[in-house]
């Protein structure tokens, strides 16, 4: 740290040319990418009136589809499904093979880019949270000002939730640094290169952001790509589930369920492209086509022009078949004849599986981030863990009835626990959720060590406790002497 600090001071002194009119230093933060900084003031200093405040929150939403879209339309699903027993990596990317097979190194490109994407989104949210309250333009009402800040707090909380689950301890950055000058460099420079915070500190900030956001976000919007109380309560339920705070999981699921969401009558309607922003969707990324930040992620998972990512696993296909779950299998997996197009060690090319929930390759398919079925099953899990077996059963059966399955045969807490795990797997396959479910329930190592190929042979995943989180990118450590590496990397 000292060598970086004194080097910066040396540059300042050597330059000796800083005048009253030209005192800014071009020192860029490592972990919190500065979004939209033109060199004059902070990244958010352009937020001065109602129009620029609305533009800032619009741009922050836009990062889901533009600035960090590689994470939100692709990598999120790779981490949640290819890293689990739901899918093989597929395609031909070595960094994704390493993730899939628990062979990641600190130089892994996937780990490096997702760290950057998520901190980029946090920096954008921070600019709004810090600067919008300063706006005095009467056109920005007190209510709307509070809404914008609350929306940004949700976005920051969601990004940190993904970061802490992927990397464990990460730097917790909730402020926007002022412009760095020769006068404040001693104070500001150390903040540019922050150390990692403990996971409990990160979770505390996530919960603080969400608790403050819940009463202030808009009650509704023009579509489901609006952060509303339902989205906030859903994320709160997910965060509390990682902490096994079952009472809060139940409380927040109840709040979601009280907002009028309903399951679509036909499971396939969720994915057919004709029922977007439905009664079941709680938060949804809307895409219209290439001109407005199209969903190119669909082409990463579906099509016959090249070998796709997230190849459904033999284990998942067997799970659908064992449950006789024809409805969800048909919506989740498509089989094609890929003869002569590529090679594969897991499947015959005459009947090759593809992830099918994102299937419209014209860039117009929406991505459902949160939906009611997920919430119902989370509440069922919490009820079961608190001894309310029959209430849990009702919710599980509600989800099963829609897909024409009979009542769950689970008869006690232990069997219901596994039944809910299986139900979440089949209901939410290829929605980026399975891996995180396995980790938070302590089942990841047991499940992954037991995974077999289509012939019953163990896949021999070299998973250990250290591999439940990713490495801190070596590029970040090289830039920041205060960052340390996770065990095992």
Automatic annotation (TrEMBL):
Keyword Signal assigned: yes
Domain spans labelled RagB/SusD: 298-489
Annotated CDD domains: SusD
One term under GO cellular component: cell outer membrane
SusD-like N-terminal domain ranges (all copies): 82-240
Matching PROSITE patterns: PROKAR_LIPOPROTEIN
Superkingdom in the source lineage: Bacteria
Sorted UniProt keywords: Cell outer membrane, Membrane, Signal
Signal peptide bounds: 1-20
Location in the cell: Cell outer membrane
Family: Belongs to the SusD family.
Protein name according to UniProt: RagB/SusD domain-containing protein
Organism the protein comes from: Siphonobacter aquaeclarae
